[in-house]
Task: inverse folding
């Protein structure tokens, strides 16, 4: 049986420790190609590059995989890989491991998850992985067992069309992680607090800052599974239609 | 009764004809503040600015509204308006009128719709408007009646928490538009075809191009309502959880 073909991308950039860890885990499972941004792309959501151009180069990094560095966003990487780099449809697209949480509402801001969603739109199996540790030198080793387990199970039992997975891993030693929980996206939001500063020329400028406000106490919310020491898995879809509200709206608008 | 407070933004930039048309329509309904990008931000999806800073300035444009130009993305504009410019919660946030279609899968790439979604995340009533005409000098006048009608109805009957509207308007004279149809997001995708060129220094570079592939023939899909001459309205939610697949996934992953 031939090895599964796996495309790896991320949003922290091709040399980030998180993607290198993911590549090493995937090299034990399949035939790996990496197409990832040449610079950090955190918070880029589902951005695509339409008003400027892209360049790419093959680079040499440790391991048997092929590595391509692209001057675009995570979503650009998926689109470009499928059109210009791969001459086959990969069996799986994995994105990450993100340095930091992408659970709850973060799914819509996240370049990591947008790459996975884009792969889903393209009709491919896709999973985004994130570790709840923003440090560049975070320890990704405890993720290995869970990531490989989830990947093997999805390769064996593919997701239906229109669904990708959002996997978040708590910042805990492997022996303290209690297992995997399939969850819903917690109802939460960021409360903004732009930090105002004055530049050397006397003009005001602002940094986006804020705090995360979890408004969801239900035990099946990803935020709560993570707080309780579980790896959270949320099935994510990109048909955003609120079907349950169509009939109400028909009465008021048509 | 005081006039409703309306925040207007877009992704084509604060001076685009589409947003100026929307501002003029909203000035007849409410008390309008504009916080919009100082440069084109098409295709920016739900991107936020976290690795650089933002500046803004108040500018003077025709009309009674206040206009603030921000150096960020559409989502930044909503966040910044709520934290630093408005000292109240607006009754409604409208985004657009986008120069070009945002129906179907375009909802996830669109800066226009991401601004509306961000307002929804913030707990506000929000609508994104797009005209199926990419021309800078498109005729937005036929949109007026439909946009004002939808806005007045939503102000009178607010949407439930967690839902915003994606409104697309066909490129037709007013008398040929058949009415409003509440729809689902059509199942469609872009088929990429990156255009390869050679720069003056001999290096390859690429433009993202592609064609839109509608795979959805159901009459309630927005793509089909638009083709048939209707204004399409899709209720959009930002809880991306595929609830229907949670139980299946629990059996295979937990």
Result:
């Amino acid at each position: 049986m031939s090895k599964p073909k796996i495309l790896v991308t991320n949003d922290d950039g091709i040399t980030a420790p998180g993607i290198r860890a993911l590549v090493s885990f995937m090299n034990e499972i399949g035939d790996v190609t990496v197409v990832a941004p040449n610079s950090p792309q955190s918070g880029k959501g589902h951005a695509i590059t339409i008003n400027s151009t892209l360049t790419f180069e093959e680079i040499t990094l440790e391991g048997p995989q092929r590595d391509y560095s692209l001057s675009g966003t995570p979503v650009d990487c998926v689109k470009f890989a499928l059109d210009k780099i791969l001459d086959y449809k990969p069996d799986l697209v994995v994105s990450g491991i993100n340095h930091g949480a992408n659970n709850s509402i973060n799914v819509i801001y996240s370049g990591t998850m947008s790459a996975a969603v884009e792969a889903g739109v393209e009709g491919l199996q896709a999973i985004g992985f994130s570790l709840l540790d923003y440090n560049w030198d975070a320890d990704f080793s405890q993720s290995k067992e869970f990531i490989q387990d989830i990947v093997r199970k999805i390769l064996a039992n593919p997701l239906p069309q229109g669904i990708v997975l959002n996997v978040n891993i708590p910042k805990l030693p492997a022996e303290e992680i209690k297992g995997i929980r399939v969850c819903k996206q917690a109802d939460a939001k960021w409360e903004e607090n732009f930090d105002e500063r004055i530049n050397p020329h006397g003009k005001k400028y602002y940094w986006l800052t804020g705090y995360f406000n979890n408004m969801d106490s239900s035990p099946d919310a990803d935020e709560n599974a993570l707080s309780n020491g579980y790896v959270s898995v949320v099935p994510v879809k990109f048909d955003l239609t609120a079907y349950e509200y169509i009939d109400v709206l028909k009465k008021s608008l048509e």
Observations:
- The radius of gyration of chain B is 19 Å.
- Residues 140 and 156 of chain B are 24 Å apart (CA to CA).
- Chain B has one domain: 5-187+218-253.
